[in-house]
Design goal:
Blueprint lengths: L11 H4 L8 E3 L14 E4 L2 E2 L3 H11 L2 H7 E5 L2 E4 L2 H4 L1 H8 L1 H11 L3 E3 L7 E5 L5 H6 L14 H4 L10 E4 L5 E6 L7 E2 L2 E4 L5 E4 L6 E5 L6 E3 L2 E2 L4 E10 L19 H30 L4 H20 L4 H9 L12 E2 L2 E2 L38 H23 L5 H8 L3 H4 L1 H12 L1 H10 L2 H21 L3 H15 L1 H13 L2 H15 L2 H16 L3 H21 L21 H9 L1 H5 L8 H12 L2 H29 L11 H7 L1 H13 L19 E3 L2 E3 L1
Antiparallel strand pairs: 1-2, 3-13, 4-5, 5-7, 6-16, 7-16, 8-14, 9-13, 9-16, 10-15, 11-12, 11-14, 17-18, 19-20
Helix pairs in contact: 9-10, 12-15, 12-19, 12-20, 12-21, 12-22, 15-18, 16-17, 16-19, 16-25, 17-18, 17-19, 17-22, 19-20, 21-22, 21-27
């Protein structure tokens, strides 16, 4: 069965290090009643089980390529689970099944034990490096890692009872478990187990050191496993047991295991294990009747009822495969970028280039791969209705329009402001120049903040604050106050034009984004021209520059209304399993909680990036060579457009006697018809490219798309 795989043969004299020193925890101490399943011992504190040589031999056997290839699954990024290692590795099997190991564990719990079934030997949980299964498998080494991971302030203040634990409060599937630590724990924060007493009191059991194990009657004792931080790896290996005593109730179940086990193998082992248990009970009663020469009919009747009930409990755990798959589909978190669609240099977006589409979700056309792969959760923004998505699209497009609309509108009334404040056109235009500058660089504040506080609250609160400063601009009468209000409004309103693309990326699939960005850009790119154009018409008719900024305030007020009516939080952390996702109420009150940031504050830890991490990511992107080329292109294009916008009022309104053109404000407004008409004309006259990704022609202009920090050409 095992083949020639390992050079080391398990030797208890070499590999075991148990010294008999163990501190037990009793059911009585925990104020828990003893049942027909339980022994007096609830569990133990950590005890020495493997020697240093034993740990190395165990790790070498466990991380043999054959074991990893056949046993490794990844329920979530950063986590590997090995199932069935005892069937592949002779060393692992012999260690757990050796009579000395069995005696040690049985003596600790004060009851003879049997291993549940072969598949439950050495169930191993590994905290591994890597974003996918192959990367995590490649990171495993036989030698224990001594590397440390610097703790963040959030991790230092981690409170497992108040926040997300790695495994929440639960009872185990089987009566007894032995947990063995086979990784270095020096410098590790967390990793302990909390157990709940009968009166609700909670006690902490420190996690075992490397080579140490602990035993728990997990089927009877409710417990919680805390997360571990500060170490490069954390590896625990677990074997499950039942009492090897006839007439002892067996409370085992397998509903927790079906999600990550092959049902054919699991059901076979489960059926054999349950039948073996029944066989033991039948043989014990058979021997009793035969040796006594008589039968107690009452006892025999009770026995028949018990075995019937036991068999029924066994069969109810073996749910049909199709039913199991339907249930699991409601909870599974799909890999956002599955390995089959990854190729060197990009991603496969059409099934024509795939050998198989098994397990992949496709668009309605039946051939476009959905990237990222959505979950089946209604909270996943990729699953929102088309109506909701497009209402959000319009909301953030109007939001982006507001920023440059308000920023560029300042060139319209400078003739009246220069006259009122008795200064040159150039000086009257200085607030507009600084405003444009801050509209650009303030995005470096809001983009990272949208990652560590989230999209919706950043958009909402910057819009609220920006609205008040825009109103302040309309109310002020002095140059100094006007200057301050313009600068402050620019700092906050620019969040809408820099963060909104992140929302588009969140709610639309890869093949949809080019078209949606085009729709978003239709409003956004019109705003630098609409602002001064409409502003010129307003001030030209009313002869009061304040009215220009009242119009700007009205534009922002409309945006606030759209945010309150339609915006929802779009960030969905796809690195977490579905059961770890915080609940998102689908009521209006719940949505407003996410809009204002109350929900984000409540669920911040582990779900969102830290402040330092977001700025490191921003720096990483800025330092990429292709980013520099794109930035230069945008710089040249926007420099020309911004320069035209900001200086139009100065150049064309200056009297002819001073070298200008002497245009009035209405004429200045008419000048802006030119860029608006030409902008749309270029869109329609632009030569149509090849139909990229099957998208409409206008989206085909985009030859290169960016996703998840990588590009696909």
């Amino acid at each position: 069965m095992y083949g020639h795989m390992e050079d080391v043969v398990f030797d208890p004299k070499i590999h075991l290090a148990y010294d008999g020193k163990v501190q037990r925890i009793t059911m009585e101490e925990l104020k828990l009643p003893r049942t027909s399943t339980s022994s007096p011992v609830a569990g133990s504190l950590p005890f020495k089980l493997l020697s240093g040589e034993g740990v190395l031999a165990y790790r070498k056997a466990l991380f043999d390529p054959k074991v990893i290839d056949q046993c490794a699954v990844s329920p979530r990024p950063g986590t590997l689970v090995l199932r069935g290692a005892g069937k592949i590795s002779k060393f692992v099997h012999d260690f757990w099944t050796h009579e000395e190991t069995m005696k040690i564990i049985s003596d600790i719990v004060d009851v003879p034990l049997s291993i549940i079934m072969k598949g439950e030997i050495a169930h191993t949980n590994i905290q591994a490096k890597g974003s996918n299964l192959e990367e995590m498998k490649a990171s495993l080494r036989p030698e224990p890692s001594l590397g440390k991971v610097k703790l963040t302030e959030e991790e230092k203040n981690y409170k497992p009872l108040d926040e997300n634990s790695i495994i929440p409060w639960h009872h185990d599937s089987y009566p007894y478990v032995c947990v063995l630590m086979i990784s270095e724990t020096e410098g590790m924060l967390g990793g302990e187990t909390y157990i709940k007493a009968g009166d609700g009191e909670i006690s902490k059991v420190e996690g075992p050191m490397m080579g140490y194990g602990c035993v728990l009657q997990g089927g009877e004792v409710e417990h919680l496993a805390a997360r571990a931080f500060g170490v490069a790896e954390r590896i625990t290996t677990i074997t499950s047991y039942r009492p090897n005593v006839t007439k002892t109730y067996d409370s085992s179940y397998i509903s927790n295991l079906r999600a990550y086990s092959g049902l054919g193998v699991l059901y076979q082992e489960w059926a054999l294990y349950r039948l073996d248990k029944m066989k033991e009970e039948i043989e014990a009663l058979h021997h009793k009747i035969q040796s006594s020469g008589a039968v107690d009919t009452g006892e025999f009747d009770i026995f028949g009822q018990q075995q019937t009930e036991y068999l029924l409990r066994s069969t109810t755990q073996m749910v049909p495969v199709d039913f199991h798959n339907r249930i699991i589909a409601k909870y599974v978190t799909f890999e956002p970028l599955p390995d089959p669609i990854k190729v060197e240099g990009g991603l496969i977006v059409d099934t024509e280039n795939l050998a198989s589409t098994e397990g992949l979700k496709l668009s309605r056309d039946g051939h476009t791969v959905l990237i990222p792969q959505p979950t089946d959760s209604e909270a996943d923004c990729l699953n929102w209705s088309t109506t909701k998505k497009h209402l959000i699209l319009f909301t953030i497009a109007w939001d982006a329009l507001c920023a440059d609309f308000v920023g560029a509108i300042g060139s319209a009334p400078i003739i009246f402001q220069a006259a009122e404040w008795q200064m040159s056109f150039n000086k009257a235009n200085q607030p507009n120049a600084i405003t444009v500058l801050l509209l650009g660089i303030s995005g470096l504040i809001w983009v990272p903040m949208s990652s560590y506080w989230d999209r919706a609250p950043v958009l909402f609160w910057t819009e609220v604050i920006g609205f008040f400063f825009t109103v302040g601009t309309a109310l002020c009468n002095t140059y100094e106050t006007f200057f301050a209000m313009r600068v402050l409004s620019a700092i906050f309103l620019t969040a809408s034009q820099t963060v909104s693309l992140a929302l588009l990326k969140d709610i639309f699939f890869f093949h949809e984004r080019a078209r949606k960005i085009g729709l978003w850009a239709a409003l956004y790119t019109a705003s630098p021209y609409l602002g001064p154009q409409l502003g010129s018409f307003v001030v030209g008719k009313t002869l009061d520059w304040h009215n220009v900024y009242w119009m700007a305030a009205g534009c922002v007020a409309i945006q606030l209304l759209l945010l309150v009516l339609f915006l929802d939080e779009t960030w969905y952390n796809r690195t977490l399993h579905s059961h770890e996702q915080p609940h998102r109420s689908q009521t209006t009150f719940g949505r407003l909680g996410r809009l204002t940031g109350a929900w984000q504050i409540q669920h911040h830890k582990r779900y969102f990036s830290t402040v330092s991490a977001t700025y490191r990511e921003l720096l990483f992107v800025i330092l990429q060579p292709h980013f520099t080329l794109i930035a230069i292109l945008y710089f040249l294009v926007f420099m020309w457009a911004v320069g035209i916008n900001v200086t139009t009022g100065v150049v064309f309104a200056t009297p002819a006697s001073y070298g200008g053109y002497g245009y009035n404000t209405i004429q200045l407004g008419c000048l802006y018809f030119s860029p608006n008409i030409s902008r749309e004309s270029v869109c329609y006259m632009n030569p149509r490219r090849t139909n990229v990704l099957g998208l409409p022609d206008r989206s085909g202009r985009v030859a290169t798309f960016f996703t998840e920090g990588k590009y696909v050409s």
